[in-house]
Amino acid sequence: MAKLSLLFDPFFIFFFFLFISPSLCCPPYQKEALLHFKFLLLGNTSSNSNTDLYGLETWNSTSDDCCQWRLLHCTLQKVNLLDLSDLIPSQDLKPVVTSDILAPLFHLQTLISLDISYNNIHGEIPGVGLANLSNLVSLDMQGNSFNGSIPPSLFSLRHLEKLDMSYNLIEGTLGTNFGNLSNLKRLYLSSNSIHGEIPTQIGNLTNLQWLSLPNNKISGAIPPSLSHLKSLEELNLGQNFLTMELPTEIGNLSNIRWLLLCDNNLSGEIPPSIHKMEQLQILDLENNLFVGEIPTWLFDFNYLLDLGLGENKLVLKNARIAPRCMLMHLSLKSCNLSGQIPIWISNQTDLTFLDLSNNNLEGTLPQWLAQRDLSGLLLSNNKLSGSLPPHLFQSQSLNFLILSNNNLLGLLPDTIGQATEMKMLRLSGNNFSGPIPTSISNMLKLVLLDLSSNRFSSHQFPVFNPNSSLLYVDLSSNKLSGQVPTTFPLGIKVLVLSQNEFSHVLPQNLSNLNQLEYLDLHSNNIGGEISNFLSQMSSLQILNPRNNSFQGSIPIHLSSLSSLQILDLSCNNLSKIIPHTLGNLSRMINHHDFSSSILSDITSQIILFSGIGLTETVFWLPNQKNLLFHELEVFWKNLKRGLPNKNLQLYTFLDLSNNQLSGEIPNSLGGLKNLKSLNLSQNKLSGRIPLSFGGLQSLESLDLSHNNFFGEIPCTLANLFELSYLDLSNNKLEGRIPSGPQMDRMDEPNSYANNSGLCGMQINISCEKVPSEPKLKEEKTKKSNSWEIWFSWEMAVIGYPSGFLSTVLVMYVIGYFNITPQPGRRKRRRNLVRHGLFGFLRI
Fold first, then answer.
1. What is the DSSP letter of 396?
2. Model pLDDT, residue 531
3. Is this entry keyworded GTP-binding (predicted)?
4. What is the rounded CA–CA span in Å between residue 328 and residue 320?
5. Cα 571 to chain center, whole Å?
6. How many CA atoms, within 13 angstroms, populate the side-chain half-sphere of residue 162?
7. What is the mean pLDDT of the chain?
């Protein structure tokens, strides 16, 4: 009893907790490590405000117990979980931090879970430091900028069950060491630059449940050893460079629920062994090289929700399919469907996404399809006809409607504005007519609107909410008239109004669209001068008012458009000189490494605003990227071509051709070192071609034809090593054509035709037959000197006899030869001799 009473003694309890029980606070070395990490992070972000760091404001030295801090968890008073993801969420452009800031965390050897995702951390993966965290079970590093290869030391983390390095810049191969992570259950490496083949040792990860490697550069065949992963539930190898046929053994993955192999180069027929995957919910084989007939047993999976077979060489012949599954997403794009839209699809009452584009479907849009509550309907590039059912736009779920390139006609229904959830509407390449319904402005979530290549006609346009989501508008190739409309949202980035019947002058309030990056007005009848207010649109990257009726001079303030990469003012009535300020267009001077383009920005916004799920993105959005923009038409190397929209940010053009410009070319244009194409043809320019053009080091196309340039072609053009097209015809150029590695290839005679006197190996005219100007002067000098020598001897030969005869005649007249001496005659003779009359006889 005495011993028992001792247990309840207050002093005993105090001393027990003081000396015997473990500390109630986290160890000091862990607290110090965490504070050191915070200090390094603040230093890298150049911020001293705790309000900028989400959750780190509780980390301070005055707190005794770090286990009470946010963003971490402790067990037995030791830190075992750190959630440091997205520490700076309030900034659009996060500051760059290096992987060195992670060094203090590697002292926390009790860590079981570490999440450092989405912090914009740069540098190589600190493999040695991570290897110290030998108890790690979960490591999340996604959404940073880690580069280099995966360090081998990482594979020493034997307890690791989850590894996520997605969305980084990791290179190198997967390596055989992955097989050492025998406890791994989830491996995510998507959206990196990993290359090489999938190692066969991947089959050693028998506990693996999720394997996600999409959007890398992985090549080769899918190893049969993958079939050893009996626990695998998700396999995502999409958007790589995988080849060969699917291994038959893949059907042994009996627990697989998601099988995503889209956007590869896989070939052969769909293996029958897939039929054994009874738990299959998602099967995505889009955009490969699969061949043969689509097996009907693919529709027999009881749990199948998403089926993507489009963009292959597959054929669906059996139109009388009776699926056992109830699909939510179906893609049969480019599957050689013909006739009307298959009636069996009408029984798929859970369907929310349908892609039947690029087939040979005919007939009208069925009423049952218009009444279906779809989120996405893609029927482009078919032969559908008739008008659109009004009920189609009464759905409150419709996000994407793409019906381009069919034979649809008539007016757009007034109910179109009721589809208030619409994000993308593409009706281009049809025969729709009449005005654009004003109710379309009710689609406040609309991001992309493409009504191009129809027969819409009106001078009135919808008035969009200034703050709506619309970024891209293409109304080109219609019959729209009046003044250029400006009733678009203030945040619009792309506006294409080309090939219509717009007239008048550009409205001043066009400058309100100051986020506009792409403005295409070509082939209208817009007149007046090019207004200076365009220089206020500082985001402009592409400006194309080609083939209009603009007149006057080129505004000098266009040079303030620092982002301008394509300027096409050709085929107008512009006059006066080329302003020297065009040589200040900085995007044409320096190369800019843009991580994103207009296209990718819009694609991101569509995903952001739409809230679409993973499977919808996988099925169709990557394949739609090439369809988002119409191709920008330019004259490239004397041919009208469309620039690929996905690489549009790589091109820099300056086209001032077919105007009335005069004067000399300003030397400043030679400073546009990043310019790809320069076209000044069909003007009234004169003077010499500037020597500074030798500085156009990126130039691929140069057209100065049909002007009044004279003198020699500057030898500095031999420095244009990227040049592949040159036209100097119809000028007054003369002399030798410069030679060099690239200029010697410019050997098309028509490029130099109709000049004053060019010679060179490029046109097979020897320069010896056509002397240059210095040689002509030298020959004239020689001829002049030889004439002077000839003339002096000729005069000597003629002059001496003439002088002799004249003297004799004078002497005879004065009686010198008389026989009888006369007084004074001898004296006169002496005077004649003295005055030199006979001087010539002394020579």
1. S
2. 86
3. no
4. 19
5. 27
6. 12
7. 85
What is the H or E stretch that residue 292 is in? Answer: strand 289-293
Q: 636 has which bridge partners? A: 639
Q: What is the DSSP string of 712-768?
A: PPPGGGGG-TT--EEE--SSEEEEEPP-STTGGG---GGGG-S-SEEEBGGGTB-TT
Within its chain, how far is the Cα of 762 from the centroid? 36
Report helix, strand or coil for 37.
Answer: helix
Beta bridge partners of 407: 385
3-class SS letters over 273-306: HHHHCCCCCEEECCCCEEEEECCHHHHCCCCCCE
DSSP string, 597-629: -HHHHHHHHHHHHHT--HHHHHHHHHHHGGGSS
**Alpha carbon distance 408, 392 (integer Å):** 14
Reference 271, options 245, 238, 242, 296; nearest CA is 245
Predicted confidence at residue 600, as pLDDT, reads: 60
Contact partners, residue 498, CB within 8 Å, separation at least 6: 476, 477, 520, 521, 522, 523, 524, 544
pLDDT of residue 605: 64
When computed from its CA atoms, the radius of gyration of the chain, rounded to whole angstroms, is 42
Residue 597: what pLDDT?
A: 57
Q: Provide the whole-model pTM.
A: 0.82
- Residues 594-604 as b or e (16 or more Cβ within 10 Å = b): eeebbbeebbe
CB 239 within 8 A of CB 214: yes
Q: Which tokens go with 17? A: 């907790």
Which has the closest alpha carbon to 725: 743, 707, 708?
A: 743
pLDDT of residue 100: 92
E strand or H helix that includes residue 241: strand 241-242
Of 184, 149, 152, 196, the closest CA to residue 168 belongs to: 149
Residues of the chain with pLDDT under 50: 1-23, 47-51, 90-92, 595, 612-620, 622-627, 771-777, 779-784, 786-793, 795-797, 800, 810, 816-817, 819-843
